[in-house]
Every structure is written in C-alpha cells, then in structure tokens.
Amino acid sequence: MMDSSEYQLKYFTDNGFNRKKCPKCGRHFWSLGDWDTCGEPPCEEYTFIGASPMKESLALHEMREVYLSFFESHGHKRVRRYPIVARWRDDVFFTQASIYDFQPWVINGVVDPPANPLTISQTCVRFNDIDNVGKTGRHLTFFEMCAHHAFNTKDKEIYFKERTVELCHELFTKRLGTPPERMRYVEEWWEGGGNSGPCLEVILDGAELATLVFMMYQESSDGRRPLGMRVVDTGYGLERIAWVSQGTPSVYEAVFGPVGEYMKKMAGVTTEGQMMKEYSKVAGMTNAKTTSDIRKIRETTASRIGISYDKLMERVAPLEDVYVICDHSRALAFLLNDGVVPSNVREGYFARLLVRRGLRAIRSLTLDLTLAEIVGRQIDFFGPVFPEMIENKDDILQLVRVEEDRYRDTLTRGRQLVQRLTKDMKTGERISNEKLIELYDSHGLNPEIVKEFSTAKVEIPDDFYIRVAAMHERPEQEESREERLPENLPATRLLYYEDPETLEFRGKVLAIVDGGVILDRTAFYPEGGGQECDSGTLEGKTVRKVVRSGNIILHYMEGEMPVIGSKLKGTIDRDRRIQLMRHHTAAHIINGIARKMLGNHVWQAGAHKAMDRARLDITHFENLTPGQRDLLEREANKIVLDGLRMNVQFMPRDEAERLYGFRLYQGGAVPGGTIRVVVVPGLDAEACGGMHCQNTSQVGPIRIQRTRRIQDGIVRIEFCAGMPTIGSMQKDRESIETLSSKLNVPYESAALEAIVFFEEWKEQKKHIERLTLNQNVQASENLLRDAIKIDDLRLVTTEVKGAEDPSAMSKMLTIHPEVVAIVGAVDGKNLSLFVSRSSNVDLDCRTLLKEMMKITGGGGGGKKEFAQGGGGDPSKLPEAFSKAPDILRTLLKGSG
Q1: What contacts 703, CB < 8 A, 6 or more positions away?
Q2: If you average pLDDT over residues 502-527, what whole number do you get?
Q3: Would you call 217 helix, strand, or coil by DSSP?
Q4: Do residues 698 and 582 lie in contact, with contact meaning Cβ atoms separated by under 8 Å?
Q5: Rounded distance, CA 545 to CA 554, Å?
C-alpha cells in the first residue's frame, strides 16, 4: 500500500492543486484543472494530436536543447550521455534509463556523482515492446531519456520532492507554454535496480511525458529499508515531449526527421489525407499490448472511416515497415557506435535482431536500398549532437554491410532449409512456435521469411520478437567463489601491488580454511583476470595454487599444514612471475593495436595468460587475414621497441572514468570505489588487477601464432611473448634448416623449393594413382575371367599383396554386373576380409561375411551391398576361400 502522506507536497497545497481519485483506474492525482480522470490511457484518449497544448512546435534536437538549457539555467550541470551498453554493470546489457548510469556505485555512496545536481539526455534501448514498433504509433526500441538528478546525503541536501515538482511544472508551463490547468500529476510507486520510492507520473492531454521518482528505499530479501542517500530520479521522454509539442498523428512523424521523410518518399507512402490522420490518431492513443488488440482498433477505425479492413491495411502496412526501418536503423547506429558487434550472443544478439527485422522490412517494401545507407543517414542526423558517431561512421557502416551480406546468405540457405523441414508435414499442419523460434535463433530466419518459403501453415505469434529478446535479455552470471572464511579476518596485504619485484617475504598464518593457508600478507599473485597464479614455496613447501576470495588470499601448499600464528618465508618463482607479466602486458598491447586496426567495435571478450602461451579474445565479425595478423604483430612489436613506461595506479572510479571513459572495463565490470588502472600510453587504458611489466620493452618480442573465429562475433588471438617467442622462433629456424638440408638448397630458398617439391610430388602421386588404377582394372579383368560360375553369378576370391587396396579392389570388381567378390589382405598377423556384390545381385554381404568369419575367426559388419571384417587367423584364409562357393550356393538357395 502507498502512503498518501508521501504525496502531500507543500508545493501542491500552496499553489491551489486539488487531489482527486480517478473513477476508472482508482489512482489519485493532483491538478489545477477540473478533471474527472487521471488523464492517462485507457482512462482518457490523447487530445493533443492536431491541437498541441504547447506554445511552439519543437523538433527532436530543438526539444533536447530546450530541456538541457532549462535545467542548466536552474543550477544543474549538463553531463554527456553514458554508453548505451552498460559496461560498468554486470547485471544488464543495456542502459534502459538515466538512473542506470549511477547504479550501483553512486547510489550506494561508493563514488561521487559527476555533478550534483545534474541534467542529461541519456540514450536508451528497450526490447520489451519491439513487436509493437510501427503499429501503435508510439512504441520505440531506441529513445532518449532526458533527466535531472539530485543526490541527497545526510551531510548535504540538494533538493527533493518539492523542488522537483516545481521545476517540472515550470518547464512545461512557463518554458514550453502549456496552460497550467492542463497538467496532471498521478501518484504511483516505483521500483527498479533494487531501489524504490514514491513517484509522480506527469500526464498532459493523455500522454505520460515524465516520471518523477523519489528514490528513498533499498529493496532486499529482508524487506524494505531506507537508503543512505535520497535520490531525485526523473525520466522525461524526449520523443514524447517533442511529439506533444508538434501534435503529429504519431510519434514517428515527430522524431524520425529527415530520415523518416526520405523513407516515406522512397516507399511511396504518405501520412497526408484524412484517412491516415484518423488511423494514426487512433493507433497512437491505443494502450494495446498485442497484435490482436491492435487489429481490433484497426477494424473499428476502418468502420469509422468507411472502408474495409483490407483496404486500410494496404495503406498502413507499408507505413509500418517504414517506421520499423527508421526505428531499428537509429537504434543500430547507437549500438554499433558504442561497441556492439552483431552476433548470436550477449549484446550482439539484439543488434542482429534489429538488422534482420530492418532488412525484412526493406525486402517487404521491395526497396532498392541498403540498410547501411539508412544507418548512414541516421548518423548524419544525430552527428551534430553526438559527434562521436561521425568519427565512428565508417566502422559502423562496415558492421552493417557485413550483416547484410550474411543475411543474404541466410535467405539463400533458408528456402532449402524450410523446404526440408516441411516436406514430410501433413497438409494443413502448422509449424510450431518453438520451431519458429529455433529457426530464427539457430538459422537467422525471420518468421515472415519462413511463412514466405513454407508450404505448411505458419501463424506468427503476436509477441514473437519480444519472446526471443526476453530469452537473451540478461547476462549469464558467473558463480562467485567465496570460501567459508572466519569472520573478522583482516584483508590480506597485497605485496605484489606494493612492489611487483618483491620475490621474498615473511607472512603470519592467520587461519587455514579447507586446506588453504591465509597469511596476513603475501607476494603470491592469485589466479584472476585470465592470469594464472604465481608458483613458489612457503617454508620450502611447494605452493600449487593461490586463489582470492573477497579481500582474502588463500595458499594451497603441499605437505603438513603450518601452525596458526607461525611465520612463513615465502619465495616466488621469478621466471614464472616475469613471464606472466610479459604475457599480461602483451595482451593489453595487442588489444589496443587491434582496436586501432580493426575499429571501435573491438572489445576484449576473454583472455588467458599462462607461462608458455597466451590468448586474447576480441569482438570482431570475421577472422583476421594473414596480412592483418602480420600487421598486428608488427605494430605490437613497435610498441615494445618504443619502450613506453607503463602507468599503473589505483584511482577513484569517477576520476578514472572521467580520464579514460568506459573503455576501462575491457574485462567486465569492476567493483569498488577505487580501481587499479593500467595504461599503455597513447594506446590502451584498462581497469585491471593483473601483473604487468614496468616498461613495454620488458615484454620482449611478441609473436602472433594464429588467429581463429571461435564463435559468432568473437576472434581468438593466440600469442606468446618473451622467451616462449624466442623458443618458437628457434623451432621455426630448426625446421627450415632441416628442410634446407634435406632438399639440399640454400636456407633462404628452402620454403620456395619445398613448395615446388610438393607440387611435383602431387603430380607424381596422380600419375601413380592412374597407373595403379590401370593395373587394378587389368587385375580385376583377369580375376573375372577366372571367376567361379555359380548359376548366373561370378564369384571372385582373391588375396591382395603389397600396397594394393583390398577395399578398392573389392568395389572395382563389383562395378560389373552379377559379381560377388571376396577380397582378403594379410598384414603380418592381421587379417582383413572384404565382401561386396554388384547392384543387381540379391545378396546380403553381411551374411556371407559372417559365414566366412566363422572359418577365419574375428568379426565385422557393414551394409547389404558391402561388408568388411577382421581380426581372424590369416592361415585360415585359403580354407575360407575354398569353402566360399558352397557357402554362396547355400545362401542363394536360401534366398530363392
């Protein structure tokens, strides 16, 4: 139950607002006007279409600037948008509201906000209504949430409910010119991200334009408790406000700008004319959630304007496709700009979903357009406001073009795939929803395409794309490793951070947990961040594993456990420590070079650093070419030779983000208010807890051993650095020297001569195969002349010698009609037997083989036309051959 006192604001009472209860939905609301209902659909319809309550019509970019400037003029600092991919969090993929930018670190008091108070226009994506885009006139996947936030602590109060409502009312009435009595504020309760609090929904002429949340509580399994910080969390829908200011029939006409106009022109559709205005007005105001709800609205609309439903849909369907293309292309522009690579996993799944729905819509309209061209127009439209999109334009469009090519390949394969799927289906049988989802998830086939290709019945669920998006909407959470640790243990002092060159130390035993020794301090680096742990000894006993649990380090050592309270001498394996440092530093260098080479979309997707080898997984749409691999290797070694001093330091999270941006989180979200930042000057900056060289020259030579595409959108780079590289180079030299010696050619020309030798060998092999074939043909003809006649059949029994292929001989003999062939081969003490027959002979070769193997021993199997066995006594082969005619006669008599 909501406490009504939460909404009894002095601002409302002092300014003459009245509190009423909506008779339709039962919610309370505040207003200066004499309204019967709360004003939100379905309690009321939109009334702003064609009659905006605001004094001026503002386009999307104009409205954004009006909003931000208004709050700047009222003491708020303008903050740049955060990435649309929430890299600083591990519980969500995408930024879906402006408050996501500040959860959990600011809300939990771990770091300070970038400004207080602040204002922002945050780019967001949501996929929970993707099937309704283009149909209702109001749903979008990409949107901007304008907001102003204030973070109130016990020590410093900025403002809370009263000032928040005052600013909102002033924005709409004084700045945007809305008559004050038109505004309504509906009481609600908000929960999200583990937080909650009362809120007010801001309603104007039927449209919800903002939500004013007063975040006051923490929600947990133990119940609700007050937050240490009270947060003003507002969310103003930029697109909605621009729509209301223009009063257009749908939000799409208000926000798609020149891209929308271009698409309507290319598709030959229009929103002019009374019929379309009437339809859009009804579609825009509906609160429909499903396709069936929307159909009812359309049928009602068709009847109202005096045309058939089918006639209405002839006009509406192309317009819907236009809106889908516009919405999805602008969402793609931002997703790809912020580092998403389309794929079948994680964030990439949603980008590919948008690509394929957009391409399906283009195909439906039979437009001679590429999706890349439309995305390019979106970049041009948003570029003046978000200049980073212009900087990354080439990279973004390359990703789209690659996906377009892959979609064309999918369609080529799709027709055959669907036909194979449906060939055995009964007339009228329906392809199940589960199979439709599988065809999309596994093969990339939109259900509309399946319906086009299929002879079976296809009914597409109203919420098909909502379902598939929901299957992928949250990241898989790795299980945290938390040992059962005694309470009140102090954090282990990490000597490897204080001085990476510390190789000996003494530590006091504080506890032993499940065989793991806990010291008050340690120089042993635990496994983590893809880096293997240090090795060494404690009091001369081998340390085989080191792990971290929270802020405690556990050492697993051989032999008897030490006494608690005793002091142990620790010694680190120097060679292993240095080599792990080289590989970890090399991974940072390679990651930075790969991003500069391949594009802004490159992010680390995984890594492992061992003693003799290492790997780095990056997001990229295809494997590297040999030329790209060699260039990557050369550029990485240039960084090594430049001898850049590595900058490794602990920094406040907010300061690090301000200096280096969210590229810091290459290895995923990092907890805490203070993070360890590793910088390769001018190339790479990452939040990383691993061990690194102090100078890039200490890495030694880097060698890219191979690259390969390990899954959709992920390329693995396998490499080595330092002494393993030297070892690899020496092995290569040894191989070339051996080759040079065997070919008796100079070292420098050994590889070329080997290629020439190989080509000559292939020709000679073909020549030998031709000779062998001729010999086998001649041998088979001789054997057939000497075959035993059994009725109309010819029985051949023979043992092949030397390099002859008994299987091939058996099959060659039975190319001829009415032949049964039994071919044996002896290799030392091993016997093989092959039985085959011509295609026009009615005989099961498996039965004949079984009878033969009763004589020789062993076993076998195969098919009716060809069987083989082995493992018998080679000395019994002549006896088996001599009895073969009688066995065959018996089998033929039995089959007859």
Answers
A1: 633, 719, 720, 721, 725, 728, 729
A2: 93
A3: strand
A4: yes
A5: 8
